[in-house]
Amino acid sequence: MSINKKALSEIISYVLLISIGLAISGMVFIWLKDYVKDSNVESCPDEISLMIEHLEYNKIEDSNNVSNLTLTIKNRGLFNIDGYLIRVNDKPGLNQGVWLLSTKNEPLNISKSQTLTFNETDFESLNISKVCYVDVQPFIISKSGNKNIMCKNTASRKVDC
After folding, report:
1. Exposed (0-12), middle (13-18) or buried (19+): which is 81, by Cβ within 10 Å?
2. Given this model, what pLDDT does residue 128 score?
3. 20 to 30 A Cα–Cα from 149, which one of 7, 93, 138, 142?
């Protein structure tokens, strides 16, 4: 009774080849699983859209140095929003809101508008003396209710400062 050693080594080579292939595929899976976006992550719908319907900025150069900013924000998207952030900027030419002026946790329904007025005391808390840019970013509250989901679409407007 003789054992064919060539056949036995061929089986061992196939077993080793399959084992190495499974080990490599397992390592690649572990390495890449953090790069794939989880489909259960909540996101803001693309059809959410805000618009700055009216913006009025009055900077009165006198002894009081009073400034007023009046914004009318309209929801022109297809979904209600749960709130929005208002950011301002005091540097001419920089097209991005830097300073957080206000966070409104008030719902804004479809096709509805809301008018807000900010005065000099609001600007003093940010330590800015003028407004050159206004940026409004909507958010929705997650289904669990414990976090705000920021939307990509923002409404922005340059201001003559």
Report:
1. buried
2. 81
3. 93
Q: Enter the tokens of residue 20.
A: 């190495």
d(CA 80, CA 144): 17
Strand partners, 58: 68
Please tell me which residue, 77 or 65, carries the higher pLDDT value.
77
pTM here?
Answer: 0.68
CA nearest neighbour of 134 among 80, 46, 60, 56: 56
Fold of 50-158: Immunoglobulin-like (2.60.40)
- Can you tell me the distance from the alpha carbon of 43 to that of 150, in angstroms, rounded to the nearest whole number? 8
Tens of pLDDT, residues 12-48: 889 999 999 999 999 999 888 877 766 666 788 888 8
- For the chain, where are the alpha helices, taking DSSP H only? 5-32, 120-126
Residue-wise pLDDT tens digits, 106-124: 889 999 999 998 887 887 7
- The rounded distance, in Å, linking the Cα atoms of 68 and 120 is 6
